Amino acid sequence: MQSxxxxxxxxxxxxxxxxxxxxxxxxxxxxxxxxxTVIGLLDRxxxxxxxxxxxxxxxxxxxKGDQGLQLGRSVSILAGLPMSVPGYAxxxxxxxxxxxxxxxxxxxxxxAYDLALAGGVEHMxxxxxxxxxxxxxxxxxxKLVDPTALNMGNTAEKIxxxxxxxxKERSDQLGVASQQKAAKAYADGNIQADLxxxxxxxxxxxxxxxxxxxxxxxxxxxxxxxxKTPFRPHGKVTAGNASPLTDGATMSLIAGERAVSKxxxxxxxxxxxxxxxxxxxxxxxxxxxxxxxxxxxxAGLKMSDIGLIExxxxxxxxxxxxxxxxxxxxxxxxxxxxxxxxxxxxxxAASGVRLMIQLARQFEQNPDVRYGMxxxxxxLGMGGTVIWENSNYRGK
Length: 396
Ligand SMILES: CC(C)(COP(=O)(O)OP(=O)(O)OC[C@H]1O[C@@H](n2cnc3c(N)ncnc32)[C@H](O)[C@@H]1OP(=O)(O)O)[C@@H](O)C(=O)NCCC(=O)NCCS
Description:
Layout: E1 6-13, E2 17-18, H1 30-43, E3 55-59, H2 71-78, E4 87-90, H3 96-109, E5 115-123, H4 138-141, H5 152-162, H6 168-187, E6 198-202, E7 205-209, H7 221-225, E8 246-256, H8 257-263, E9 269-278, H9 288-299, E10 306-311, H10 316-325, H11 341-344, H12 351-365, E11 371-378, E12 382-390
Parallel strand pairs: 3-4, 3-5, 10-11
Antiparallel strand pairs: 1-8, 1-9, 2-8, 5-8, 6-7, 9-12, 11-12
The structure holds coenzyme A.
């Protein structure tokens, strides 16, 4: 085996839908959403021999029912990949797809693999957060974690408690900005280019889903001001500054340099480093801070070297805590240029690859930017960060 560089070649996703029986995917299976992404992605690379794919890693945070039959293998078979292509399911909750990418990248980097598919899916309508979980009573009995740590909205309220200068007004502002940036990204055609349309059946019949369902482009600060605070009376986290409950799937094609030259692939970005890190579970949203510090240090880079940042907006407050730590302004133009999860949604284990898809497209549009990062927080107190080099970099 010979070590080699690892590249993000391409990625696609389904449009994201509203979780629940009113959502567009209520009658669509989670594994079928994932199948769509595999087929849609490989259709974009017709000359790539499918039997050359060394592995398929697919994440879900809740691995039962239509997300339960070992997604890597079952989705590969359903998508018509040759039976010789293996697959596995993977889980790191919200960072599932990110971990699918870093895990296959490790295998490619040491030369065990050359080509892999990595992505994630979450049907939060079919699998509400925490459904079927049976947390060990020791967590609370032995005070291993704060009781609030198991509810993500509460963890966001806790960050507001810890950093009072990161006010609700700032969270709302970030929520509105996310909606406005997503609306502009749609108007500019920056999102549609990487979407795989899905036929979905509703009470009104079949419909072709071509756009994220949850967008609220007309959001205003005034409109967000008095929304209910579902996680705490008189709290600060609302539906306007949190990511909504979402159904959706993502998929990426990851390759080593040998496959790039053998199959004439055009990489969009090169992996430079990645890191995961743990924090106190009750403020899990600050996880991207230590994971980013670790990833920057492994890469020998500083935050000032990073020209584009895709951070998952699980909650506005956890994005603000990241920006504050790295002394970036709330509206730093390098951050989430197309908007984020507050506007588009956050189908837990799928989101990591959405960040990569958006960063890759922004790299294309910004050939003067050399480095970018994708980063996200993870339940029970973790963060993950991947640093990428722009394959379109043409120098300053
Ligand atoms: C915050 C949360 C509880 C809201 O759920 P919900 O109440 O079902 O959300 P809705 O879409 O019905 O929005 C609630 C209300 O706010 C309104 N609203 C939502 N976004 C709005 C916006 N941008 N502008 C104006 N109003 C808005 C809705 O219209 C609705 O109003 P109504 O009650 O009058 O109908 C839910 O989205 C949630 O749990 N998010 C976090 C998910 C999570 O933890 N993910 C993991 C992260 S680690």
